[in-house]
Specification:
about 375 residues, alpha/beta, Rossmann fold, Zinc Finger, Delta Prime, domain 3, 5-stranded parallel sheet, globular, binds zinc ion
């Protein structure tokens, strides 16, 4: 799947001219539509050394290096939690070449200590400094260097300023590909130095067709109802739906936790917040918040228009809860959740936060 262009990006791709790129592009769009795949495809094409028109050719030396995470002129900067999204040697346990720090290391060492030693969801200052240090030298292959940063909103203030300085005086032969799910969280000064490229989400039919094709290619049997359900439960995020359908994400714990959370929410005013929080607090907070947010959205929408968007498979529970919950309180809670999401990157103790939210949820059912 790596380095392929998704059908819903073909138009955006055709509008790019590889020979006429600005020094920085900022790709933005909804979460889970494949922006990272697009960015990697672009990076690979820029570094491809084929003389053909069609780039990336996927067969030259440069393309091969890129695919295995060894291209010397490609720098991918992501938070620790996203390291696996960068190209890397896919054979696990293979004697890694020159020990590239921070790459491919993740899987082995975090299984046992997942709970206490959490991978950082920020891009660290050192990561940016290290990357930008050697940037004024000539690219190793003499052509171009590509620096990818995903997501830009994961930069802390100091790093954002370091990046800004570099963008103000862009080094020759270096192209920055920045990505963002949340354009509103990015310094306007950074934004204004990039060409903004809005990447579209696929239409529903397009997403369903693509998912069903991927599932088939993987040799997995899923009905079209399963695929439809996965897509709607992930809020239209094709990448999340695919991971869920293939069962290949390292998010198994997460989907268990969100299932548990949904079960708890279905208990309306009887929700046992203490037990629920105990069961789920180790899952990533953004996932829990999104689940809660979608559930409340469905409650609200059921109350207002009798419609359910995210969890049609849980219609009976949602209808029951919508009847019992006080509409004005539900609307207030919805705003609280949006606010919580805005601050989700701040390290609030998960357990305390999820307990507090579930207590608020229980309150929805009382006058
Ligand atoms: Zn190539």
């Amino acid at each position: 799947m790596k380095s392929s262009l998704f059908p819903w990006f073909e138009q955006s791709w055709s509008e790019l001219s590889l020979n006429n790129m600005p020094h920085a592009v900022l790709l933005h769009g909804q979460t889970g539509i494949g922006k990272m795949e697009f960015a990697l495809y672009l990076a690979k094409a820029l570094l491809c050394e084929s003389t053909e028109h069609q780039k990336p050719c996927c067969s030259c030396e440069a393309c091969h290096w890129f695919d295995t995470g060894n291209h010397p002129d490609f720098l991918g900067i992501v938070p620790e939690t996203m390291v696996s999204s960068l190209p890397h040697e896919h054979m696990e346990g293979s004697d890694s070449l020159e020990d590239k720090p921070k790459r491919g290391k993740k899987k082995s060492d975090d299984d046992s200590e997942k709970a206490d030693k959490k991978a950082s969801s920020f891009i660290k200052v050192e990561q940016i400094r290290e990357a930008l240090e050697g940037i004024n030298t000539t690219p190793h292959r003499g052509r171009q260097r590509v620096v990818l940063i995903n997501p830009v909103e994961a930069l802390q203030a100091v790093s954002a300023n370091t990046l800004l300085k570099t963008l103000e005086e862009p080094p020759a032969s270096t192209l920055f590909i920045l990505l963002s799910d949340r354009l509103d969280r990015i310094l306007p000064t950074i934004r204004s130095r990039c060409r903004l490229i809005a990447l579209p989400r696929p239409h529903k039919e397009q997403a369903l067709a693509w998912l069903s094709n991927q599932v088939q290619l993987a040799g997995i049997k899923k009905s079209s109802a399963d695929i439809d359900k996965a897509l709607s439960e992930s809020g239209g995020s094709v990448m999340d739906s695919l991971a869920q359908l293939l069962g290949v994400d390292d998010r198994e714990d997460t989907s268990q936790a969100t299932d548990f959370l949904l079960g708890a929410l279905a208990q309306a005013g009887q929700v046992n917040w203490l037990t629920a929080a105990e069961q789920i607090y180790k899952a990533p907070m953004p996932d829990l918040l999104i689940t809660l947010e979608r559930w409340i959205f469905d409650l609200l929408s059921q109350q207002q228009s009798g419609q359910i968007r995210y969890y049609p498979s849980r219609q009976i529970d949602i209808e029951k809860c919508a009847k019992l919950a006080r509409p004005n309180k539900v609307a207030g809670f919805w705003r609280t959740l949006l606010d919580a999401r805005r601050h989700e990157l701040h390290a609030l103790a998960n357990r305390v936060q999820i307990e507090a939210l579930l207590i608020r949820y229980q309150e929805l059912y009382k006058d």
